[in-house]
Write a structure and sequence with these properties.
6-stranded antiparallel sheet; 13 strands; 2 domains; about 15% helix; Alpha-Beta Plaits; SH3 type barrels; about 190 residues; alpha+beta
């Protein structure tokens, strides 16, 4: 297990997602190889984004807190490169497959929202449960102003689900008074 300080940067180079020189792709990585592939991308000079979240657990033997930095989308790393660079990624031994993103503008906008939220310090957490369709909302106030997502009620709290197609979902807790519905309300299965 790596120390928190030994993790690769979430984004390299550190700039907005929409400033990438090449099209975006998603690498489906072998189990628990996301950070190793990020290290390889740094070494190969390939632009990437690996959103990560900090999870704090308690050790069973002495009850001390243990921080783990985990990928928000386990099993996936987004990268921007020319197609010629894909062979180098496969050669690392960490990649199971590469997914081509057909709708680049939509993917960049969604990934950009995740990047923006994490840069603002908004806590996101992985959500691995299958979700039904819910209300699409637009945040009108606060630091998340302009972000779109799907809302659900979880344990008496309103949560905004930011879906990134092909990767999964991330959850940010948001005050319901700050959102405006875009579509009709439909029930959504909580995470």
């Amino acid at each position: 297990m790596r120390r928190v300080s030994e993790n690769p940067p979430a984004r390299s180079p550190d700039r907005p997602i929409d400033r990438a020189e090449y099209p975006w792709f998603v690498a489906h990585v072998k189990p628990r190889q996301e950070k190793a592939l990020a290290d390889d991308c740094l070494r190969l000079g390939i632009e990437y984004y690996l959103p990560m979240t900090v999870k704090v657990t308690r050790r069973k033997d002495n009850n001390k807190p243990r921080k783990s930095v985990l990928p928000l989308f386990a099993g996936y790393l987004s990268f921007s490169s020319a197609r010629e660079a894909h062979a180098g990624l496969y050669a690392t031994g960490h990649v199971a497959g590469i997914i081509e993103i057909r709708h680049q503008k939509k993917f960049i906008a969604e990934l950009g929202q995740i990047y923006s939220l994490l840069e603002k310090g908004v806590p996101l957490e992985p959500c691995t449960m299958a979700l039904a369709e819910g209300d699409e909302v637009y945040i009108e106030a606060g630091p998340l102003r302009g972000v779109r997502g799907v809302i659900t009620t979880v344990r008496d709290r309103e949560r905004l689900i930011l879906a990134v197609e092909g990767l999964g979902r991330a959850i940010a807790t948001i005050d319901a008074a700050m959102v405006k519905p875009i579509t009709e309300r439909k029930p959504l299965t909580p995470c």
